[in-house]
Design brief:
The chain is mainly α. 72% of the residues lie in helices and 0% in strands. The chain has 2 domains: 15-221 and 304-495, MFS general substrate transporter like domains (Growth Hormone, Chain: A), CATH 1.20.1250.20; 229-293. The mean pLDDT is 86.
């Protein structure tokens, strides 16, 4: 990795080189695991009603929708002789995320907690997005499944430890898991402090232990793209104008329907998303008309409308997969505490016992994922990536649906086995299929855009799950988990349609 240019054929990296370049994900997952397992608990402690939880969680996906493609776009164009291309973003995100993790359990009110969630998710995304492109930058095609599987392994290990932290502090160290109304439990506070430390240390390990390849020949062209017009401006303008007008029209119609039918206010977020995305397209059209097609926004919108076919096919799989996951993350605590522990009172012993068990279950499914990640490259080698993903997602869908039939909390362990297998695959196989289909000079940007199909289902989940809980599911959160399981099975079927450009090289 000391050559003056990126080799035409990237060499195989050693186990420890792949280990070091992936180790930062251990820390990133400390942050995500604490956020996923404890945010609803913090919100409810600070006075949030269960049907409002999905709306408050919207802070996270909105930031990801904005941050990841922008970070990817500019990291493609970044190069520093000492810090490289992706590593500056690793470091900046780690610092900001660590601060946010320390602040989250000290929130003075519900709205402060929502605001900190916004900052925390944006900061973690700044670090996380370049890690996906990092594998494409550094590894040959034959090692990419292994590289993404290594990330899944560290995600699983980090989540196991982080998810267990409140339980460890309470049961091993005697720190209380109960507090006065409106106060965050000490066990949760100390867990977030440990998470902040681990996130910073693990990401910095990757920053200082890994060297990036020098700029490729196309890198100067990318840097100078800010001075270059796009190709075929008239054709691009016509295409973007049609897409923008359609999205804007959909947004306006949805907004009118929500108002006319007096539907839930949360649905305005969905209609607003269509409206804003349409306006962004039309703004790009305006810039092209003004002869300013060199602007970054124009390139971002143009490339979004020129996604490779593999990426388009994977977008449907990602949508249903992540919708299922967000359903679980948002509603697992209220579902388990109300359906199995028969308590909706955040100050009761039964509720906190159930909430602690959910946190432990999240750790368990991540532990299963860490183990499953080691076997995914082997299964993919002897079948294919899409078949491997189909098997894993089917296990996840069955796991989520099975929670409806369980009354003994210990039996939820079996549900988490299926979820863990799916989680390992979701974190690796789609990225391995995608990376070989992307132009190297746009790896960071398209990996950021790929995050849209994680974020958009979260936004939709945040806007409709509370509505469905009240109107279709009679306030029973357990039905949200069943609905998520059905979505996971749909994703499994759709995964069989994906064709990767590297079918035979896994």
């Amino acid at each position: 990795m000391a050559s003056s240019t990126t080799p035409a054929v990237k060499p195989q990296l050693s186990f420890w080189q792949i280990w070091n370049m992936s180790f930062g994900f251990l820390g990133i997952q400390f942050g995500f695991a604490l956020q996923n397992a404890n945010t609803s608990r913090i919100f409810q402690t600070l006075g949030a009603e269960p049907e409002s939880l999905a709306l408050f969680w919207l802070a996270a996906p909105v930031t990801g929708l904005l941050v990841q493609p922008i970070i990817g776009f500019y990291s493609d164009r970044t190069w520093h002789p000492k810090w490289g291309r992706r590593r500056p973003y690793f470091a900046i995100g780690a610092i900001l995320a660590s601060v946010a993790l320390c602040a989250m359990p000290n929130s003075a009110s519900l709205w402060v907690a929502v605001g900190i969630l916004w900052l925390m998710d944006a900061s973690i995304n700044i670090s996380m997005e370049p890690f996906r492109a990092f594998v494409g930058d550094m590894l040959p095609a034959s090692q990419r499944t292994t590289g993404f599987a290594m990330q899944s392994f560290f995600i699983g290990v980090g989540a196991v430890i982080a998810s267990q932290l409140p339980w460890i502090f309470n049961n091993w160290l005697g720190v209380s898991n109960q507090a006065a109304p409106g106060e965050i439990q000490d066990s949760v506070k100390y867990s977030f402090y440990v998470g902040a430390f681990m996130l910073f240390v693990a990401v910095m390990w990757t920053v200082f232990s890994t060297k990036e390849y020098p700029p490729e020949p196309h890198h100067e062209e990318l840097k100078n793209r800010g001075k270059r017009m796009i190709d075929d401006p008239e054709g691009t303008k016509t295409k973007l104008q049609k897409v923008g007008a359609f999205l804007l029209l959909v947004g306006i119609i949805l907004t009118w329907l929500i108002n006319y039918l007096e539907l839930s206010n949360e649905l305005y977020v969905l209609s607003g998303g269509f409206t804003v995305f349409g306006i962004v397209h039309l703004l790009a059209v305006l810039y092209i008309h003004q002869g300013r097609s060199y602007l970054g926004l124009v390139h971002i919108v143009k490339d979004f409308n020129s996604m490779p076919k593999t990426m388009v096919d994977l977008s449907y799989v990602q949508f249903f997969s992540w919708f299922a996951l967000f359903s679980m993350w948002i509603y697992a605590t209220p579902a388990v505490t109300s359906y199995i522990y028969n308590s909706n009172d955040p100050t009761s012993a039964a509720y906190n016992e159930g909430a602690d068990w959910v946190s432990s279950l999240f750790g368990i499914y991540n532990g299963i994922a860490a183990i499953a990640a080691l076997f995914l490259p082997i299964i993919a080698k002897y079948t294919s990536r899409r078949v491997t993903h189909f098997i894993a997602l089917t296990c996840g869908g069955i796991g989520l649906i099975s929670m409806f039939f369980i009354s003994n909390p210990d039996m939820l362990l079996f549900s988490m086995v299926g979820v863990g297998i799916a989680w390992a695959s979701i974190l690796s196989i789609p990225y391995a299929m995608l990376s070989g289909s992307l132009p190297p000079q746009k790896m960071g940007y398209y990996m950021g855009v790929f995050n849209f199909f994680i974020v958009i289902p979260q936004i939709i989940a945040g806007t409709i799950l509370g509505f469905l809980l009240k109107t279709a599911f009679g306030g029973q959160s357990i039905y949200i988990l069943v609905f998520g399981g059905v979505c996971m099975l749909i994703a499994a079927l759709l995964s069989l349609k994906v064709r990767s450009t590297e079918e035979v090289t896994v």
